[in-house]
Amino acid sequence: MEQRRLGQTGPHVSALGLGCMGMSDFYGPADRAESLATLSMAVERGITLLDTGDFYGMGHNEMLIGEALRSLPRDRLQVSVKFGALRDPDAGWSGYDSRPAAVRNFLAYSLQRLGTDHIDIYRPARLDPDVPIEETVGAMAELVQKGHLRHIGLSEVGAATIRRAHAVHPIADLQIEYSLLSRGIEDDILPTCRELGIGITAYGVLSRGLISGHWSKDRGGARDFRAISPRFQGGNLDHNLALAEALRGIAERHGATPAQLAVAWVASRGGDIVPLVGARRRDRLEEALGAAAMRLDAGILAAIEAAIPPGAAAGARYPDSQLAHMDSERQG
């Protein structure tokens, strides 16, 4: 698989990464054996970047990846971990903690659950409003010096915060939602990252399945994030599924699936962007891998832009209660 470098200072990684969140949380039940088989298949097929968060399933996702790593070539892989989100025993949310002492504490537990002596890219999941980003990044920089971390990343922060963080220590990449339905980063955040030499790992490239070609109105269920996502509600869902159908038409004319076209579109936005595919099953992973070899010419790109122009999605990408915690939304 093609390799891409995360920014000017980050590691070389596979052109597609595997987002592992859905194997533990947010999208309903997942099958452990199938998840492990999917992780193994991803590495066999050339994916080297595995993305997780210590709060996915309250540590479950890290333990799952840790189990997989025991039979995978750890020295050829890059593990990316988000930290700082606080959960409770009922799987609720209690805010964020990015104090230096908390950074060291979260890291110690992640290393144990993953069964590794270092994390390749470590990033706060959201900006902690009570802790200056300089303090958080400063603590992470000390952990880089000690060898516990290889690179520092950020997640869902705006341009001003990116600049402040990068002034303390080089930032390898920003992890942020980017898809045909979520293009807000193009205004300010993406240009800032490119000015500073910071890569992008793009999550939500299929808009949580909405433009995958596999979503229907009768899907969803308990403990599925999409049950509260504005884009999956009422008239918003009807509108967005119409966009998905338009994408399906373009994909079929070019011998691809909507999911492949959506992933390939994100990858086409620049060599500094690495899409994360959230496959939980081998068949979905196989489909996503088909995007790695796709090269979208000017005609296909123009057709996609005409069918799904910027701002075409109906509904916000998160509920208001979660958008309130997202620095990226406040600063562009």
TrEMBL record:
Q: What is this protein called?
A: Aldo/keto reductase
Q: Where is the NADP-dependent oxidoreductase domain?
A: 16-307
Q: Which Pfam families match?
A: Aldo_ket_red
Instruction: Reply yes or no: does the keyword Ubl conjugation apply.
Output: no
Question: Origin organism of this chain?
Answer: Muricoccus vinaceus
Tell me the InterPro entries matching this sequence: Aldo-Keto_reductase, NAD(P)_OxRdtase_dom_sf, NADP_OxRdtase_dom
Question: Gene3D superfamilies from the entry?
Answer: NADP-dependent oxidoreductase domain (3.20.20.100)
**PROSITE patterns from the xrefs?**
PROKAR_LIPOPROTEIN (PS51257)
Which residue spans traverse the membrane?
none
Q: What's the domain of life for this entry?
A: Bacteria
Record keywords, A-Z: Oxidoreductase
Q: Does the keyword Oxidoreductase apply?
A: yes
